[in-house]
Amino acid sequence: MKDSVNAFADLKDDLHRIGQWCSKNLLLLNPSKTKLMVFGSRQMHSKLVTPSLTFLGRELVPEHTAKDLGVILDTNLTYDEHITRTVSSCMSCLGQISRTKHVFDKRTVLTILNALVFSKLFYWSNV
Length: 127
Known about the structure:
The chain has about 130 residues and is mainly alpha-helical.
């Protein structure tokens, strides 16, 4: 409990320094795109009390999921939602390809499959 209070105090200081540094270097930040996520087990989350944090005048509310570089992260790092959405998107593409595959030759269909399906499956597959 004490560690989490110290961690949030450090985070608050870091957010303030980031805002100052960006202002000093004439960089604009969009605080509405800033997400607060606390990663850990379900047991840890049940015990955690998240204090109020603000960044550039906007209150940061803890999020359960957030998208970063096309990958949906969740607080438990299970990737369940990312996998579900990726499979759903691939299935949708496969359905559309299946309905139109007779129009294209085999090589074109493989190119379409690589571009619309396999690329999604292989992106971040090492995670």
